[in-house]
Amino acid sequence: MPGMIASDKVEVLAQVDVLVIGAGSAGCCAAISSAQQGANTMIVDRYGFAGGTSTAVLDTFYGFFTPGETPRKVVGGIPDQVVDALAKHDAMFLRPNTYGAGTGVTYNPDVLKWVWDRLLISNGVKLLLHTLLIDVEMDTAGRIIGVVVATRQGLRRIKAKRFIDASGDAELCHLAQILCEKAGEIDPAQTLTTTFRMVNVDFEKFNAAGGKQMLSQKMAAVDLEKHPLPRRKGSFHAMPIPGCAATVAVRVADVDPMDSEQLTDAEVQGRQQAFVFEKFVRECVPGYEKACIGGLSVHIGVRESRRVYGEYRLTRDDCMTARTFEDTVLVCGAPIEDHRQGKDGQDETAWAYVPDGQVYHVPYRTLIAKDRDELWVVGRCFSATHDAHASCRSMGQTMSMGQAAGMAAAMSLDQACGARDVSVTGLQDQLRTLGAVLQMPDKPADISANGWGANR
Length: 456
Known about the structure:
By secondary structure, the protein is α+β, with helices and mostly antiparallel strands. It folds into two domains: 7-186 and 306-455, 3-Layer(bba) Sandwich (FAD/NAD(P)-binding domain); 196-296. The protein has helices at residues 25-36, 53-56, 78-88, 109-122, 171-175, 203-208, 211-220, 260-284, 316-320, 386-392, 395-414, 424-434, 451-455; strands at 12-21, 41-44, 60-61, 92-96, 103-107, 126-128, 132-138, 144-151, 154-165, 180-182, 196-199, 235-238, 245-248, 292-296, 306-308, 328-332, 336-338, 350-352, 360-363, 375-377. The relative contact order is 0.19.
């Protein structure tokens, strides 16, 4: 029940215009966007760094480019500012996805932590780390007016006029008893992944031996008694750090990520699997003979947990028919990428591509919790069905969600209206001015080695 803590007895830490819960890629862009519009903005996160999955688990942004032979760049605005900062530090490059999901922006995640810090603070966002959401404070009409957080000094209250749930797990919405669909309730929940870095990789030898194609063949033909790989597919790719490779290979299935015991077991399994892969590549893959694990993801990567029911739910049909909406605030060309466990226990990722290299539109209404005027939802808890979520959860799109919601939250204060009454045409105009992409570009993107600058 919301309000379980006697919040009136808890000291007020801050009073702000817009409060963002969760400093992942969506939340950071939401906070930056809100602050750029002049709103007094705070963002809180449980970890000691910003970026969420972008810095704790992964090393590549997908969704910036459509797949296919004539890719288009379909993400812009604040996400471009992020990649520009990485490029200036020589901490990113463009690379093709192993399975045809489009060109990715691969980066150094530790540099990205620094980039998020700089962008948040330089735009006037109040950043509060090591802070955990505990409870919500609501008025007699059921409207959220504040939260209770656990800080290093104890419990504190944060009062705000507008709220953005970017927690990934829809924690704010859940505490406020806002309707959510839990992963696995209707469709099987996607698998979880512990990522890891390999250091001291000889890429010259690896590529001379056949590179990715050779690795794929060796995985397919592996002796599972000697090397019991949890899946015989996966990505081992170079990072913008000499001799380092990042992986997306581990697969942990049948986990409820909202259950602490199950999530604990998944963390343990993920680490165990990582070292199974390490032994395999050291013994079987040229170029990896002297390599070893140099780092594990901060936590296991969760693809889906809770999804909020919004004013509109994005559907598979919307994605596969390249549907357009009048209230679009971003576009997506990423395929549906549904990571499942097959009957043989091996990976059975289902892929479905938007036809003809097109894009679908994502309406503003998917970012508003149903019947709420003070609350937006962004990132992997936005309003979508399982299949649509499996496409639109790419970080290029979640960052775009954040910049749209943050801008809308600030506009709602200027316009003295709720989330549902924000001028959508005004929001779209502001997004275009910022550099956001709201329709399929005519010009193909440059995905060459030096393509990022050409695309900007």
